[in-house]
Write a structure and sequence with these properties.
heterodimer, A: 113 residues, mainly beta, 5-stranded antiparallel beta sheet, 11 strands, B: 116 residues
Chain lengths: 113, 116
Amino acid sequence: KQEVTQIPAALSVPEGENLVLNCSFTDSAIYNLQWFRQDPGKGLTSLLLIQSSQREQTSGRLNASLDKSSGRSTLYIAASQPGDSATYLCAVNSGAGSYQLTFGKGTKLSVIP
Amino acid sequence: DVKVTQSSRYLVKRTGEKVFLECVQDMDHENMFWYRQDPGLGLRLIYFSYDVKMKEKGDIPEGYSVSREKKERFSLILESASTNQTSMYLCASSPDGWGKRSTEAFFGQGTRLTVV
């Protein structure tokens, strides 16, 4: 059964720093991987989707990479801002016909002004 | 933009009540999902549906049922609400992966249910 781990569970950085969030998964036979952001008490907002054939995706200050063979993905946030404070979750889709996402428990990011 | 709309942001119900949580998506997605999210446990899949009138159990279906009579609407039903069903409930939708480039999932804003 696929398991997804995100380390660290919480991270606090000063404003302006570049940072990396980590996601690892146990079964490398994935279809795609998706990064989400969740603000307190709210739903999930999709940030980036990486197909299994891709190595990275970029959106603005965000860059997500995927190393399927080693079971790892990273989310890089450049020039962090207080508005980036949220919980970041990664989720793995394990097959083209698979209907389920397996989620990590998230990394809670605090960007200190 | 894809929109997934959950009918309520907050609900308070009494133990033993029958509770309906409604979710509507406007992008003609085949797949729809219900998750619950609890501190320390993360997101857990309750039920999903890959077509109208089709449903599959997720990891924690006990105490819940679902209904999908129309493609755009997926309802979660708590047959007899209990206090251990107090949680954040999240609905999601995604397109069918077969033959399509992306199966990006989109979530609703969540429903915070409290059972007293």
